[in-house]
């Protein structure tokens, strides 16, 4: 038996998987995000642990005998978050999350301090990454920065709590701007540019490696062996790819979760940072990936449900299917948390454009679905500019459960999407697979096989033609509004 834990933004998910890769039990526990000031996004690590214990308790209760046979635990989670610890491993402040945009000015400072930043990391400095957050802390909270002995990513703080080990994996480490992504090792130059030493970093491992074992007191409390291996695991996107069997060059993954990701496996480090394409290590040894990221995807649907007074997401989607069968005349910019690819603009904001007396709740909701699809189309466009040509694209994430939304996205991309069995399980399933490899020493190719295709979603010709006319207007709308997005000085923290 193997456990996969995915520390997401809105919940912690836990899966119990047997040797046949059958899901024996699954559970989740909710999380909330604190936004005390404009552009800020934070969570308390203590809330992560409480949610993890709750999710683990649920799967333990659902399958006590099977859970007791757990051999390894794999970790996945939201990337880029800055969890600051003192020399005694005490948390110094709330963790600053991936969708926090406060450190935009520090990005320019970081690129000036280390002109080789993009060559070393394969990425442009963006407010979502970890390193600019530390410059912000150094400038605005110098007393906290002075006490900072270690910086951990969210899932790696869970690892410390589970096993007492300071470690991370290559895919998650790639999103810090401290990793030399080609060499798969920490960059002394990038750490120095942020005022940190290599000693502040956890040990960087391949995602398939074990990093330690479960703490004895936790093992006793959970009824597990103290020899239970903790696998390095992966950042949420890389772990999701492992779960979907996307581990071979040319395979693509579209993740329709809180954020949205287009992920393309490569066999070499292939940076192209000019328009927000990320070049990261995969959680599988000797592989890398290119990635475009939109900061608000399924979260846009969650946001609009109470705004328009709908009962829930499912009922609103049903309303769209019944009442808004044609492409929306309204346009939605889905930049509720700023945007990363292709704009690298933490100040960007969500917009409804083109409202009339004929606009209804259903047409607004359809505009939201289409706006997210257009953002994915932007992401695929810049991946292609960077030389990335996906052979196939598998779709995963909670949003993948909507056939309508998947059809809209496929039509906007002009590319088929493959929906596979267990598509909604995402990174937690990949984390369980990585746990199995770490414990059993099996080949990733043997364990991370692609689940069977449930259906292939082809682009709709009529929708694709309509979107070909709308997408240029969508892009032009951002360009026209870009100057108006800046936060007024009176509203800044």
Produce the secondary structure layout:
Blueprint: E1 2-7, E2 11-17, E3 23-30, E4 42-43, H1 45-62, H2 64-68, E5 72-77, E6 83-85, E7 95-96, H3 104-113, H4 117-121, H5 130-140, H6 142-147, E8 150-152, H7 154-163, E9 167-169, H8 170-174, E10 179-180, E11 185-186, H9 188-193, E12 203-205, E13 210-213, H10 216-222, E14 229-231, E15 234-235, H11 236-243, E16 251-256, E17 260-266, E18 278-281, E19 288-294, H12 298-307, H13 313-323, E20 331-333, E21 351-353, H14 361-385, E22 392-396, H15 403-413, E23 417-420, H16 427-440, H17 444-447, E24 453-457, H18 461-481
Helix pairs in contact: 3-5, 11-16, 12-14, 13-14, 14-15, 15-18
Describe this structure in words.
With 493 residues, the chain is α/β, with parallel strands linked by helices. The chain has 18 helices and 24 strands. Strands 1, 2, 3, 5, 13, 14 and 15 form a 7-stranded mixed β-sheet that branches. It has a 7-stranded mixed β-sheet with strand order 18-19-17-16-22-23-24. It has a two-stranded antiparallel ribbon with strand order 4-7. A hairpin with a 6-residue loop joins strand 18 and strand 19. The chain is globular, with a radius of gyration of 21 Å. The mean pLDDT is 94.
């Amino acid at each position: 038996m193997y456990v996969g834990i995915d520390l997401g933004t809105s919940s912690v998910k836990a899966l119990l998987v047997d040797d046949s890769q059958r899901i024996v039990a699954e559970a989740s526990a909710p999380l909330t995000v604190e936004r005390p000031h404009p552009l800020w996004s934070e969570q308390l690590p203590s809330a992560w642990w409480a949610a993890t214990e709750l999710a683990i308790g649920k799967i333990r209760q659902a399958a006590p005998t099977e859970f007791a046979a757990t051999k390894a635990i794999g970790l996945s989670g939201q990337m880029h978050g800055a969890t600051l610890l003192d020399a005694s491993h005490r948390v110094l402040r709330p963790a600053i999350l991936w969708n926090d945009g406060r450190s935009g000015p520090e990005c320019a400072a970081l690129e000036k301090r280390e002109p080789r930043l993009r060559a070393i990391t394969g990425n442009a400095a963006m407010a979502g990454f970890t390193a600019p957050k530390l410059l912000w802390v150094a400038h605005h909270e110098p007393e906290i920065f002075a006490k900072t002995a270690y910086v951990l990513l969210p899932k790696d703080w869970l690892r410390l709590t589970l096993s007492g080990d300071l470690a991370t994996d290559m895919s998650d480490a790639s999103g810090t701007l401290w990793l030399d992504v080609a060499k798969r090792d920490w960059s002394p130059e990038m750490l120095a540019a942020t005022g940190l030493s290599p000693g502040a970093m956890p040990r960087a491992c391949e995602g398939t490696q074990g990093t330690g074992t479960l703490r004895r007191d936790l093992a006793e409390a959970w009824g597990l062996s103290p020899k239970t291996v903790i696998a390095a695991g992966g950042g949420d996107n890389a772990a999701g790819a492992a779960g979907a069997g996307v581990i071979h060059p040319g395979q693509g993954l579209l993740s329709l979760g809180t954020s949205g990701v287009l992920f393309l496996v490569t066999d070499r480090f292939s940076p192209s940072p000019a328009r927000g394409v990320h070049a990261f290590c995969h959680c599988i040894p000797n592989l890398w990936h290119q990635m475009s990221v939109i900061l608000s995807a399924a979260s846009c649907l969650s946001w609009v449900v109470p705004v328009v007074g709908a009962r829930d997401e499912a009922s609103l989607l049903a309303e769209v299917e019944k009442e808004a069968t044609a492409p929306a005349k309204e346009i939605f910019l889905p930049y509720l948390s700023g945007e990363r690819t292709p704009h690298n603009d933490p100040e960007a904001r969500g917009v409804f454009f083109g409202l009339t007396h004929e606009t209804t709740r259903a047409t607004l909701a359809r505009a939201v679905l289409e706006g997210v699809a257009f953002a994915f189309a932007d992401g695929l466009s810049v991946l292609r500019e960077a030389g990335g040509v996906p052979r196939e694209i598998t779709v995963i994430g909670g949003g993948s459960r909507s056939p309508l939304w998947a059809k809209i996205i496929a039509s906007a991309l002009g590319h088929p999407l493959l929906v596979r069995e267990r598509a909604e399980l995402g990174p937690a399933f990949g984390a369980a697979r990585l746990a199995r490899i770490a414990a059993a020493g099996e080949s990733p190719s043997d364990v991370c096989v692609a689940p069977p295709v449930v259906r292939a979603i082809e682009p709709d010709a009529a929708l694709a033609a309509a979107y070909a006319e709308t997408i240029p207007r969508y892009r032009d709308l951002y360009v026209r509004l870009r100057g108006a997005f800046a936060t007024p000085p009176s509203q800044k923290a």
